[in-house]
Specification:
Layout (H helix, E strand, L loop, with lengths): L1 H26 L12 H16 L4 H14 L4 H5 L2 H10 L5 H12 L2 H6 L3 H17 L4 E2 L15 H11 L4 H20 L1 H4 L5 H12 L2 E2 L10 H4 L3 E3 L3 H14 L12 H17 L1 H16 L4 H21 L5 H13 L10 H13 L2 H12 L3 H5 L5 H10 L3 H11 L3 H7 L2 H14 L3 H11 L6 H4 L2 H7 L3 H4 L9 H11 L5 H8 L3 H8 L5 H9 L5 H10 L4 H5 L2 H13 L2 H13 L1 H5 L2 H9 L2 H6 L1 H12 L14 H9 L1
Antiparallel strand pairs: 1-3, 2-3
Helix pairs in contact: 1-2, 2-5, 5-8, 6-10, 8-10, 8-12, 10-12, 10-14, 12-15, 14-15, 15-16, 15-19, 16-20, 19-22, 22-25, 24-26, 25-30, 28-30, 30-33, 33-36, 41-42
Protein name: Nucleolar protein 9
GO molecular function: RNA binding
Keywords: Repeat
C-alpha cells in the first residue's frame, strides 16, 4: 500500500526526467523537439533553462529575473517558439513570473492568431497558462475567498511550484492598468471559445483551454504545472475567488448553447465533451445552483439513462460464438456449471449505458459530488437503486458507489443503500474493494444512522462474532481487513489504509465501547507498533477526539503506552501520537511522560523528530526543575481555558512568554 502511494507521487518526476533525457537524445540526431523547427543554439539555450529550473531556485527573485530574460529572448518570435515542444515547456513554467510588459506583449501576439494557437499541441499549453496567470493577476489577493463547503486542504511542509507561482501573482503589486488588461484577456479568450464551440468541443488541445476559461469565469483556480499530471489530484487544491457578476453570465452561455445541440445526448460518452460537461457542473455549483439542478437533470434524463444497446448486441454475439466453438470442440461443460453460470448472468442487473463507459462514469462521479439533495435522490433512484451491490463489485463503477455514499444527504435513501450493500460487505473485503466499506462506514457516522448494524456487519464479515476469544481480535482484524483465520498467521505491523479509516469512523460512533475495549485489551508493545505506522497513528487522533469515548478510557490508553513514549517520539508518525496523548493527559500523567522522555534524552536528541519533541515540551526546563516546568506548562495551556477564567489583560504572547523565550 505504501509502496503504491510512493510510486504515484514519483510518477510526475520520472516523466520530467524521461522528457529531458529523450530531448537530449533526439538532439544528437538533429531533432530539436517536436513542432516548429528551432536551431541548435536556441535548443541548447532552452534546454539549459529547463535544467536550471529542475535544479531549483534560491528565491522568487531568481525566477523573476530568469523569466524576464527568457521572454526577452523570444521577442518577435513568440508564436514560432511557443509552437516548439522544448520552448513551450520553458515558457509555460516561467510565464507566471514575467513582468507586465512581457505578459502584455504575449497577450497581443497570441491574440492576433488565436484560432491556430488553440489547436496547436504545444502553443496551446502556453495559452492555457497565460489564461491562468491573467486570471490571478486580474483578481488579486483581495478576491480570494475561503471554501466552507469543501474539505480543507492538508497543510504542506514546503510550498510547491503551484503555490509559489500563485502567491507571487496574487501578492505582487501590479498597476491597475495591467490588472484591467489581464481581466480583459480572460473575457476575450472565454468569448472566443464560446463563439467557436462547434470547432473546439472535440479538439484535443482547445478543449483544455475552454475548461480553464469556464473555471476562471466563476473564480475557480486549478493550477496547471508543466511536467506534472493534473486532473483529480490537482483539483483537490482548487481555490475560489470573487469575480465580476458579468463573468458568471458569460459562463452560463456555455451550457445554454450546448444543451440545444442534437449531439448533447452523446457528450458523456466521448472523452473531451464528457470532461467539458464535468467542468461546467463544477462551475455551476459555484455560479448558479438552480441552473445546475436543471442541467444535471437534463444530462441524467437524456444521456445517462440511455439503454446500452450496443453492449447488449455484442454480448449476444460473443455468447453465440462461444457456443459454436464449444460444439466444434466436442467438449461440453458439466450441466451444473452451465446452469450456475446461466443463473449468475440472469442475476446481473441490466445497467444503463452510463456504467459501460469510463468517460461517463467519471462525469457521473463529478455530478454526484456537486448535486443538491433533490438531484442526488433522483440520481440514486434512477441509476443506482437495485444495482448498488452489483456496481460496488465492479472495478469501473465501485468509485461511483463511494461518491454516492460520500455525498448522500437523505437518511431514508442512505438506509436503502445500506440494506442493499449489507449482504455484500464480506464479498467486497475479499475482492479488495475496501473503499466502498470505508465510505459506507463514513456515511453511517456523518448521517448518524445504522451505526450498531455497521459494527455487527464488520464483526460478521471478519469472522469474529459469536466467540469471546475471537471477538477480542476485532481491532486487529479491522486494521488489517483480514478475517480471524488469516490474521493468525500474520505477524506484520502492516495497517491497511481503509482499515485505519474504518476504525477511526467506528471510534466516533455513538457507542464505540466494543472497539474501545478491544484496543485497551491489546498488549502495549503491539499498540505501540500499530501507532508507529503512517495509517495507524491517526487512530489515536480519533480515540482522543471522539465525543463518545470516556475520560477513563483515554487515561487508560495513555497509561498503557508508558514505557513506549521514547520509541514513539523518535519517529515521524509516533511523535504525532505522543503529541495527542500529551495533549489529552492530566497533569500527573504529563509529568510521567516528561520523566520517561528525559531519562533517554540522548536517544531523543539523536532523532530529528525527537529533537522537535524535546524543544516543544521544554524538557531542558524539566531537567533543571520539574516544578518550574509544570508551572510554565500551566501558563502555556492557560489560553485554552474559558474566557471567564483568564485575566482580561493577559495576552496570548504573555502567556507563552516563559515557554517560547
Amino acid at each position: 500500500m505504501q509502496t503504491e502511494s510512493n510510486g504515484k507521487r514519483k510518477r510526475p518526476k520520472k516523466k520530467g526526467n524521461r522528457f529531458m533525457r529523450n530531448a537530449k537524445g533526439f538532439a544528437k540526431q538533429g531533432i530539436f523537439g517536436r513542432g516548429t523547427h528551432i536551431d541548435d543554439e536556441q535548443f541548447s539555450y532552452f534546454i539549459n533553462i529547463l535544467d536550471a529550473m529542475k535544479a531549483g531556485f534560491d528565491d522568487v527573485e531568481e525566477r523573476v529575473n530568469m523569466a524576464n530574460n527568457v521572454f526577452e529572448q523570444t521577442k518577435d518570435q513568440e508564436i514560432h517558439l511557443a509552437s516548439n515542444q522544448i520552448v513551450s515547456k520553458a515558457l509555460e513554467s516561467l510565464i507566471g513570473f514575467v513582468d507586465n510588459e512581457q505578459l502584455e506583449r504575449y497577450f497581443n501576439k497570441f491574440g492576433d492568431s488565436l484560432r491556430p494557437l488553440c489547436s496547436d499541441r504545444f502553443a496551446s499549453h502556453v495559452l492555457q497558462k497565460m489564461l491562468e496567470i491573467a486570471f490571478l493577476r486580474g483578481l488579486g489577493k483581495a478576491a480570494a475567498q475561503e471554501v466552507s463547503d469543501g474539505p480543507t486542504t492538508t497543510k504542506r511542509a514546503k510550498p510547491d511550484a503551484a503555490q509559489i507561482e500563485e502567491e507571487y501573482n496574487l501578492e505582487t503589486e501590479f498597476s491597475d492598468d495591467h490588472r484591467e488588461k489581464c481581466r480583459q484577456f480572460v473575457v476575450r479568450i472565454s468569448k472566443f471559445m464560446l463563439n467557436n464551440l462547434e470547432d473546439f468541443v472535440w479538439d484535443n488541445c482547445a478543449s483544455h483551454i475552454m475548461r480553464t476559461a469556464i473555471l476562471c469565469l466563476v473564480g475557480m483556480h486549478v493550477p496547471k504545472i508543466a511536467f506534472e499530471k493534473g486532473g483529480a489530484e490537482m483539483a483537490k487544491h482548487r481555490k475560489l475567488y470573487t469575480v465580476p457578476e458579468d463573468w458568471h453570465e458569460v459562463m452560463k452561455e456555455f451550457p445554454q448553447r450546448l444543451e440545444m445541440w442534437p449531439q448533447f445526448v452523446d457528450f458523456p460518452y466521448q472523452e473531451h465533451s464528457s470532461a467539458l460537461l464535468g467542468v461546467i457542473c463544477l462551475a455551476l455549483s459555484v455560479a448558479d445552483k438552480s441552473f445546475l439542478k436543471h442541467f444535471g437533470k437534463k444530462i441524467l434524463l437524456q444521456s445517462l439513462l440511455k439503454a446500452n444497446e450496443e453492449n447488449d448486441d455484442a454480448v449476444e454475439k460473443k455468447t453465440d460464438a462461444k457456443i459454436e466453438i464449444e460444439d466444434n470442440d466436442g467438449e461440453e461443460k458439466p450441466t451444473e456449471e452451465k446452469e450456475k453460470s446461466a443463473e449468475e448472468k440472469k442475476d446481473d442487473p441490466i445497467l444503463p449505458k452510463v456504467f459501460h463507459h469510463q468517460s461517463s462514469v467519471i462525469l457521473l462521479e463529478t455530478i454526484l459530488s456537486v448535486a443538491g439533495a433533490k438531484l442526488l435522490t433522483q440520481l440514486y433512484a434512477m441509476l443506482f437503486s437495485g444495482r448498488v451491490g452489483y456496481l460496488a463489485k465492479q472495478q469501473q463503477t465501485n468509485f461511483s458507489v463511494q461518491r454516492l455514499l460520500q455525498n448522500m444527504k437523505e437518511v431514508t435513501d442512505f438506509e436503502s443503500i445500506f440494506a442493499e450493500l449489507q449482504p455484500h460487505v464480506e464479498g467486497l473485503l475479499k475482492m479488495g474493494y475496501t473503499g466502498v466499506v470505508s465510505a459506507l462506514c463514513a456515511a453511517c457516522l456523518r448521517l448518524g444512522s445504522k451505526q450498531a448494524q455497521m459494527i455487527a456487519i464488520l464483526q460478521s464479515s471478519l469472522h469474529v462474532s459469536g466467540d469471546k476469544e475471537k471477538s477480542k481480535l476485532f481491532f486487529n482484524c479491522l486494521i488489517k481487513l483480514k478475517p480471524s483465520e488469516i490474521l493468525a498467521s500474520d505477524e506484520s505491523g502492516f495497517v491497511h489504509l481503509h482499515g485505519s479509516l474504518i476504525a477511526q469512523h467506528v471510534l466516533q460512533f455513538n457507542k464505540p465501547i466494543f472497539l474501545v475495549n478491544c484496543i485497551l485489551d491489546l498488549p502495549a508493545a503491539q499498540l505501540a507498533q500499530i501507532f508507529n505506522t503512517p495509517n495507524g497513528s491517526h487512530i489515536v487522533d480519533a480515540f482522543m477526539q471522539s465525543k463518545f469515548i470516556g475520560e477513563k478510557s483515554r487515561e487508560r490508553l495513555i497509561r498503557q503506552l508508558d514505557g513506549f513514549y521514547v520509541d514513539l517520539a523518535i519517529t515521524r508518525h509516533g511523535s504525532r501520537v505522543l503529541e495527542q496523548c500529551f495533549k489529552a493527559s492530566q497533569e500527573a500523567q504529563k509529568l510521567r511522560i516528561a520523566k520517561e522522555l528525559i531519562t533517554k534524552a540522548n536517544m531523543l536528541k539523536g532523532s530529528p523528530f525527537g529533537r522537535l519533541i524535546y524543544a516543544k515540551y521544554r524538557l531542558d526546563t524539566y531537567n533543571l526543575s520539574p516544578t518550574q516546568w509544570q508551572a510554565s506548562l500551566s501558563k502555556q495551556l492557560d489560553p485554552e481555558q474559558p474566557e471567564t477564567k483568564r485575566k482580561p489583560a493577559k495576552t496570548a504572547a504573555e502567556a507563552f512568554k516563559d515557554i517560547l523565550s
